[in-house]
Amino acid sequence: MTAGRGGSAPETRLAPAASVVVDVDVRVGPHTGSGRCVTTGDRTVVDLPGLAAPRTISTAALPEWLAGLVGVGPRPAVSSPGVLILRRDVLDAVLDLAAPDVAALAAALAPEPVPRRWLELLAALGAGLCGRWRVGICAPGGGDALEILDCASAGLWAVHPCPVELGEAELGDGGDLVSLAPTTSATVWAWLSRLAATG
User: Fold this and answer.
1) CA distances, 110 to each of 4, 67, 88, 129, 159 (Å)
2) CB environment 38-75: b (16+ within 10 A), e (fewer)
3) How many CA atoms does the CB half-sphere of 93 hold within 13 Å?
4) pTM, entire model
5) Distance between CA atoms of 126 and 129, rounded to whole angstroms?
């Protein structure tokens, strides 16, 4: 380590070549599970957790639908001492702790040394976690993804895949690496808003 919960995706028909596919995975939140949105022009078929059946909506409304699904809303701005790089399985274990205090986190993360400030932040994240979700885009011109931890009063945190070479010197070859850094509701909404223009 360096400092610096869901269901299966529903079966869908193959989308036309010009379509944009948006995959959604909600691991923690009011509506957990996986879903898919297929955008063709100004119409989008949404098949999301919490819906009894797929629906067709205006592509312009897709960001609002997704924001409502995952509960995007005002969150306090938080700061961190840089970016934390850790293995994804370690992050999962930290977030699964029933009582995420500093001592429990230090034990879970051993033998990797973690600055106390990061241990305090991780404890707050684990205690406040109310949403964990990922939205991935597959489009003819390429793809993109946004993965978020919604930790209520502890703020919003973005999880990004991390090139192995950034952490292998200290972490070794121990699995997929991710970086963890604070973000804001405005940044999340700006990212989701791009989906209105994918048609």
Assistant:
1) 18, 36, 15, 22, 21
2) bbeeeebbbbbbeeeeeeeeebeebbbbbbebbebeeb
3) 12
4) 0.83
5) 5
Question: For the chain, how many structural domains are there in total?
Answer: 1
The helix/strand/coil state of 32 is coil
Which residues touch 143 (CB under 8 Å, ≥6 apart)? Answer: 136, 137
- Domain range spanning residue 129? 20-197
HEC profile of 33-78: EEEEEEEECCEEEEECCCCCCCEEEEHHHHHHHHHHHHCCCCCCCC
Which residue type sits at 9? A
| 3 assigned to some structural domain | no
pLDDT, tens only, 99-146: 888 988 888 888 878 889 999 999 999 999 999 999 999 988 889 999
SS3 at position 150: strand
